[in-house]
Amino acid sequence: MLGVRERSGGGASAFEKALTSRPHFQHVTFAVRDRRAGEPAYAAFARTFSR
Questions:
Q1: 2-40 pLDDT, tens per residue?
Q2: How many CB atoms lie within 10 A of CB 3?
């Protein structure tokens, strides 16, 4: 299990860079567990990968 603390979209951005620099996957599924008010980590992943 990989744990990434999301701060200002940094974790989502890091995953995006890694996935686009080596496009080996046709489909990627993320499980984002975020118990904080407003779910900022989930929101960052949704923003980044819903484009």
A1: 455 555 567 888 888 888 898 888 888 888 888 888 888
A2: 6
